[in-house]
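Narrative of activities, Objective 1.

The group set out to show that a structural description can be obtained from nothing but a protein's sequence at a throughput compatible with the screening campaign. Below is one input-output pair from the validation batch, recorded exactly as produced.
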Amino acid sequence: MSVRSIRLFGDPVLRSTSDPVTLGDPRLASLVADLLDTVREPGRAGVAAAQIGVGLRAFSYNVDGEVGYVLNPVLVEASGERELVDEGCLSVPGFWFPTPRWSYARVEGVDLDGEPVVLEGTGLMAQALQHETDHLDGTLYVMTLEPATRREALREIRMSDWWRA
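Output recorded for this entry:
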């Protein structure tokens, strides 16, 4: 379908809880195609529907050469060590901040046919699963930072060229 533009921090859709998708909706296949096209752009590990302006529970991922999507994802497990990992976000371009993430994550949802989808992993996959489900719950990663880091991050973001545009 098409690569969609990414909504930036400050856009209300990014702070809203996404609604569950309704399987069988004829527009859903187009949304999935757009999510997959958009996540295939270089340097992208995941794209939540909210990031392309659609308030539905869906995201695509592109981790270690594996590209896919999940509808109505639920983070069912986040465990292991809680680590600070450098993290960025397409909706907060040009910034990377140390973000607390669990070392393992598991997401369950469905595909377009209603078949179960289970995504799990460590490293970048765990980080992406937590990051994208946060988006669907209306949380941007900068809001999960430790308080002092969050204050500094928000100050830096407010000074960026794209924030003032």
